[in-house]
Amino acid sequence: MLSAVERKIEQFIAELNDKEVISLYAKLPHGKRLRAKLILKIAGSKLSVIKTAAVVEMIHAASLLHDDVIDDAYTRRSKPSLNALYGNKTAIMLGDILYSKGFLELNNISTEISKMVSGAVVNLSLGELKDVSLSKGFNTDKEIYIEMIYQKTASLMEASAGAAAILAGKEKDIYMTYGRNLGMAFQMIDDLLDITMDAETLGKPALHDFEEGKTTLPYIYLYEALEGKDAQKLKSLHKKTLCIEDQVWIQSKMKEHDIIEKSYQEAKRLIEEAISLMNDKGEKELSSIAMAMIERNF
Ligand code: FPP
Ligand code: MG
Questions:
Q1: Residue 100 Cβ < 6 Å to ligand 1
Q2: Rounded CA gap, 232 and 273, in Å?
Q3: Among 35, 37, 32, which Cα is nearest to 77's?
């Protein structure tokens, strides 16, 4: 039923009656539509569910358009990002159009759904600001990182699952925990892949996060594990363009201290909790979605 969501988004975009927007939207890669999948798996395919999934995906697409401008990212899903193709102004405005149309459509669903989703977008924005601010220095505080990824990524998945549960008349809190855990694990794994994957597979330069100033979980753990000169060296490389030797040094230190495994285990714990919650509810397909998230290659 994912195709019904695609059609609903296309319909919402067509209603804007603007040729430029229609053509720009057509150039955006769709991605995995993970949030829509969750919503459909929890709540089936009645019209209010399809609309909610469409709105959430439009908001998610808007947030990535803005994020690529903020992160100076010239690729998204192995293709040139919209800001790379048409400049920052166009990317920002298409983002604004997608999320404001999404908000308009939320009014046609229900007040409860509208509150749930728009509350998450407030968090999303607060999280992105936190990400930007934290990137100015070398953050070594794990709790702050956890709070930031909750806001930036997990809040919208939590709200997607919660909104779907409301629409399906299911227990909201359990599904929200499932969505939150999935979102946290998703971002942790995204941050890990930035270190373990080569640029070609990743579709963006490897170790880009650290160059951008982001001290994600593996860097926090690595800094904790390193001593003396090595700890100073890691700090000195923060926010710098890394030459091949520096990249290899970081990756070899990660290996030496088992950092990738330690960070992976953190994501795995969250996924296991999500799986157990869904198994208790007999939601096999939701368990499988969670399982697939940690079965990616490292
Ligand atoms: C990706 O993080 C970014 C997000 C998941 C959220 C971005 C949120 C905003 C820009 C807030 C504004 C949004 C709206 C709709 C008002 P990342 O850079 O770590 O991941 P990446 O590797 O996919 O770029
Ligand atoms: Mg980004």
A1: no
A2: 37
A3: 32
Domains and CATH numbers, the chain: 1-109 (1.10.600.10), 111-298 (1.10.600.10)
Q: Given ligand 1 and candidates 134, 139, 149, 152, which is best to mutate, with the most ligand atoms within 8 Å of its CB?
A: 152
Per-residue pLDDT band for 296 (boundaries 50, 70, 90) equals: low
Q: Looking at the chain, which runs of residues are DSSP E strands?
A: 75-76, 79-80
Which DSSP string corresponds to 217-268? HHHHHHHHH--HHHHHHHHHHTTSPPPHHHHHHHHHHHHHTTHHHHHHHHHH
Q: What is the pLDDT of residues 55-82, one digit of tens each?
A: 999 999 999 999 999 989 899 988 999 9
* Contact call for residues 53 and 36 (beta carbons, < 8 A): yes
Rounded to an integer, what is the distance from CA 72 to the centroid of its chain?
17
Structure token pair of residue 76: 């998204």
Residue nearest atom 13 in ligand 1 by C-alpha distance: 63
Residue nearest to atom 17 of ligand 1 (CA): 67
Q: What is the mean pLDDT of residues 175-184?
A: 98
Residue 71 Cβ contacting ligand 1 at under 6 Å: yes
- Report percent pLDDT > 90 for the chain: 90
The CA distance from 191 to 186, in Å, is: 9
Please indicate whether residue 66, judged by its CB atom, sits closer than 6 Å to ligand 1: yes
Per-residue pLDDT band at 145 (split at 50, 70, 90): very high
Per-chain mean pLDDT for the chain: 95
